[in-house]
Amino acid sequence: MSTATATSPTSSSTASDDVVLSIENLKTHFFTEEGQIPAVDGVSLKLKRGKVLAIVGESGCGKSVTSYSILRLIRSPGKIMDGKILFHSERRGETVDIAALDEKSDTLYQIRGGNISMIFQEPMTALSPVHTVGNQICEAILLHQNVTKEEARQKAIDMLISVGIPQPEERIDQYPHEMSGGMRQRVVIAMALVCDPEILIADEPTTALDVTLQAQILKLMRELQEKRNCSVVFITHDLGVVAQMADEVAVMYLGRVVETGSVRDILKNPAHPYTLSLLHSIPRNETLGGRLPTIKGSVPSLTQIPKGCPFHPRCPFAVPGKCDVGGPPDLLQWKEDRQAACVRLDEIHGNGKPTLQVEGGVDVTQSIKEEKVLLQVRNLCKHFPIYTKGLIRKQKGVLKAVDNVSFDLLRGETLGLVGESGSGKTTCARTILRALSATSGEAIFRSDLQNRDIDLTKLERKELKPLRKEMQMIFQDPFSSLNPRMTVGDIVAEPLVIHKLASGSTLEDMVVEMLKKVGLKPEHRQRYPHAFSGGQRQRIGIARALIMQPSLVVADEAVSALDVSVQAQVINLLADLQIEFGLTYLFVAHDLSVVRHICDRVAVMQGGKLVEFAESEALFENPQHPYTQKLLTAVPSLDPDERSW
Length: 645
Description:
By secondary structure, this protein is an alpha/beta fold. Among the domains are: about 10-265, P-loop containing nucleotide triphosphate hydrolases (Rossmann fold, 3-Layer(aba) Sandwich), CATH 3.40.50; about 270-360, no CATH class. The chain is about 30% helix and about 25% strand. It contains 22 helices and 23 strands. An 8-stranded mixed β-sheet has the order 7-8-9-4-10-11-13-12, sandwiched between helices. A 6-stranded mixed β-sheet has the order 19-20-21-16-22-23, with helices on both faces. The protein has a 5-stranded antiparallel β-sheet with strand order 1-6-5-2-3. Strand 10 (about 250-255) and strand 11 form a beta hairpin. It starts with 9 loop residues before the first strand and ends in a 12-residue tail after the last helix.
């Protein structure tokens, strides 16, 4: 770190009494073979005591690096180059510049975990698989508090009770893999709060959780935050969560803060064109069945930051000669408690609330649904045996993951399959495609290539291979589903090679054409998956699934972990391709706003059973089953004045 701007790590507090954390001109850079990458480039923020500050923006904009910098968790090849991180601690009775502390100082160890703690994005990664959850919580207590092991264990049990874990005396001795995703997330929250920190940093704590579990976790965090008067830095790309949780919002783009303000001002009257574009990308009632507004292009590489305003190549309001010259604009005061980094704010907002135009494409409001059944599922069951623990394992029961499910899927339609985690929706989809063998029931598929109805559940493996041309899957996590040792061209071409459908120049031409259709460039075929963003990797997965022009595509949480801007692009792409190729989608998802936008009909699953099945609009306007009503109630509102808790 630069010593030119470093100040004494401790001094008397000079901050306002209501500010607990002041970040001043923070710069965190990474040194790579491609050059010096300014992941955080001059960020200044203030966190008020007892308040929630949300940091939002697309992937790659510096949100998580900012949070890791606060706790000094940046490791080589990264380095904090400049700036101050002033922690105004009431408990310590002093102000500490965390950025100036020695990496091995006792003060940093005491602050990290004791005064400032963090909830990490993925609980299975944050928790050790070889230690019980109790040992991991107790470790944090013993490290920062002068208590005995017995006292630490009791504190851990009390904390598990506080975060709503049932039977805490038994759960404390369990390992992470023995718990559900929601319970693991609660354990991570317990570990972060057990030392009663003054500041809590939450990095995407509810990403990929279903709506009801997300609502439970967010309600829990809000209650604990208010009860303990804890200040929170909340990092997320879900603007509905921001509306429910945040008091103030900072919007980041390419390592810089481009807008700050109260949650109400930011969501109801966004100033910066980037904030405006993010909010317009969210599915709403007025966009149902139509195209979603999108932000053109993608976040540029930090090694090639545009001149002038970094957002100008994607900005619908950019003016040549004004927005693309000089350095990035400073964050300036706009109106009362608003700050924004845009030189055209007064011009953009001069004639009232600005609007964005939707990018062109096919008319997705036209229906291609035919009243012909492509897939007929009847009494489908998938049961898993449950065994006793120990050296000699005996079956003690069965888990009915899919229990007597029946529905029809029409040609050209998009059928949404929704429910909480563990409801059986993914197992049902995988059983239909024969990734899993059915326990009983039928899945009758109308094969166009063989011109007959085929019960997929009865086929041998060698009989399934020809049908794979007509049935494909888009996986939830594109990075884990793409071979890191294969180029993108080879990944997309692989289905054609396996089925011997093309070779040589014909194969090359088909791959190039498909990459173009999903919005990728022909030269991308020479790169490897790690060189792409999350949205681009999802497009690669879509290209691989559609290269053989299947009639049935199962999309398993295909947009759940994407930023709202990238999500809008992928949703529009799926709609375009459905029209062009006459595709039928089985859309597995937990984001009900996306389901409402893209699906013709919706099937709701609970505990392995189908509890409601209806036309999309009818289901959302007038849900009949109590479970469906519960799911819809848990969807976070984008209006900060309509908080659910």
